[in-house]
Amino acid sequence: MQIYWTKINKIIDETPEVKTFLLDLPEGFTWEEGAHTHLALEGFNAGDQPNKSLVRHMSISTLPNEQTVGITTRIKELCSEFKSILRNLEVGDKVALFKIHSNVPLKRQNRNIYLLSSGVGLATFRPLVLSYLERPDNISRIHSLNIDSTKDYLFTDIFESAPVKNFTSQYVDNRKDYYEEVKKLAADQDGLFYVVGSDEFIMQNIYLLREQGIKPEQIVLDKRERQLPNFFPVESTI
Fold first, then answer.
1. Cα–Cα distance measured from residue 32 to residue 100, given in angstroms and rounded to the nearest whole number
2. pLDDT tens across 54-98, in order?
3. Which residues, 6+ apart, have CB-to-CB distance to 121 below 8 Å?
4. Dist CA 178 CA 201 (whole Å)
5. What is the DSSP letter of 166?
């Protein structure tokens, strides 16, 4: 396993609770839109066994052509040891990256794509939207729907509707409105529905989409293949 040690180049306070850490791009570190990596703090591999409390699985919120690895995360006042250390890191401090994988690359199948997310889950979709806007080939249109009760909506410069490019973006601040909007989107029985958020959020979306007639193969999750049976049980029927 290759470990890429790199430095924090810039820290952006996206909202009072959300930060983006822009890391120097290590040589040989490549990824595609929708990818995630393991972010590790100094000392994680100092002992005989890795200290897993100093490692987290994180989505990459940038594209390679931005020449930086972006990690966007919510850090609440009461948080884990990992987030507490991360919150106090400064520009120039070192972190490690390893194991890159993408579960949610853009499917260019001449269909509509719907991006369903909760809060900071939008960070996973930022590079997908950028990739689409740069090259819309074989995608009919993209619609993003994000729920965030804080109303401190993320990436409003990117997630801004551009009808001429067949991209629309929508934010809501409560679950009732959110699920009503999902039902409307599910009227597109041929669409692809990408879902990112907590496991509870994902399950609620799957149930609602399946109830509206959307097939499991139309629902794309940021989960490894071995995890999918937990969300799509074989015996499940709607």
1. 9
2. 999 999 999 999 999 999 999 998 899 999 999 999 999 999 999
3. 146, 196, 197, 201
4. 11
5. T
32 and 88 assigned to the same domain? yes
Structure tokens at 129: 């939207």
Instruction: Indicate the DSSP class of residue 237.
Output: -
175/121 Cα distance (integer angstroms): 15
H or E element in which residue 179 lies: helix 175-185
Count the neighbouring beta carbons within 10 Å of the beta carbon of residue 86: 24
Give the predicted TM-score (pTM) of the model.
Answer: 0.91
Amino acid identity of residue 73, one-letter, is T
- Label residues 174-194 b or e (16+ Cβ within 10 Å = b): eeeebeebbeebbebeebbbb
Average pLDDT over residues 123-137: 96
pLDDT tens, position by position, 205-237? 999 999 999 999 999 998 777 777 777 765 444
- What's the CA angle centered on 13, arms 11 and 122, to 5 degrees? 100
First to last CA, the chain: 42
Query: Do 96 and 117 belong together in one domain?
Result: no
Domain with 183, as residue range(s), is 111-230
| Contact between residue 4 and residue 98 where contact means Cβ atoms under 8 Å apart | yes
Rounded Cα gap, residues 193 and 217, in angstroms: 9
Average pLDDT over residues 4-32: 96
- Residues in the chain, overall count: 238
Last-in-domain residue among 34, 68, 102: 102
The DSSP 8-state label assigned to residue 37 in this structure reads E
Stretch 189-216: mean pLDDT: 94
